[in-house]
Amino acid sequence: MAKEKIALGINLRQNKITGNSGYGKYYPEVDVQKTLSLRGFAKHMTDHGSMFGRDILEAVLIKITECLPELVSQGVPVQLDGLGTFYPTAQVKKDAGVASIEAMDGLNPNDIVEAIHIRFLPDTSKLDNISGKVFKESCSLELRNIVDTQKVTINDKVRVVQTLTPIATAVAQTRAGGSSNSGSGSGTNTGGNTGGNTGGNDGGDNGGGGGDDGMQI
Questions:
Q1: N or C: which end of the chain has fewer CB within 10 A?
Q2: What pLDDT, in 10s, does the model give residues 126-164?
Q3: 3-class DSSP assignment, residue 64
């Protein structure tokens, strides 16, 4: 019997940016769970029927974490078939554009480059396409919570906490005449940490994460 696919939780967060075209609307973001460690990842691979033990898989993964950044730091993109390509990009310092060719004489690149980022571009080949819309088809989406961020006072200190209200609960409260404000949530950071940004447009990239599938690290 095939294993039941584990759902990818989708939370909704209200856009509270006054004057924005999407103000007051709720936009989706992923309910991100606790990060899995390298050791945990190796165990997961072992549990999926790998012919190698966790110690071997862990050793291979560690070697990848050593060699991949080394190659990327040398300007060599690394493609892992079926996963994607890791490659470097330069972040320019503010107002650091070179005005002319003459100004390039004796220029130190450290004076114009703020940082070097490792970026990841998912595989888009016909055989192993895991880019955005295609990858969505391999996910089982499930609506979960309304997310809200509030300031609370704990031990005389003001802290920002995240509250999660189950959507079914919020809908029931609203229909019963209660408040639809997710601030009446059932706790903080329950069910994982949410990811993504609240969108600002009625159409297009409402989730704030549009554009290409490249991810900056």
A1: N
A2: 888 999 999 999 999 999 999 998 888 888 899 999 999
A3: helix
Q: Is-contact 89 117, C-beta < 8 A?
A: yes
Q: How confident is the model over 98-117, as pLDDT tens digits?
A: 999 999 999 999 999 999 99
107-138 in b/e form (b: 16+ CB < 10 A) is eeeeeeeeeeebbebbbeeeeebeeeeeeeee
With helix as H, strand as E and coil as C, how does 5-50 read?
Answer: CCCEEEEEEECCCCCCCCCCCEEEEEEECCCCCHHHHHHHHHHCCC
Q: Which amino acid is at 198?
A: T
Q: Is 43 left (phi over 0), alpha (psi -120 to 50) or beta?
A: alpha
- CA gap 42, 176 in Å, rounded: 48
**What's the token pair of residue 211?**
């554009």
Find out whether 193 and 9 touch, Cβ atoms under 8 Å.
no
Q: The pTM is what?
A: 0.70
Q: What six digits make up the tokens of 148?
A: 């809200």
Fill in the DSSP letter of residue 177.
Answer: T
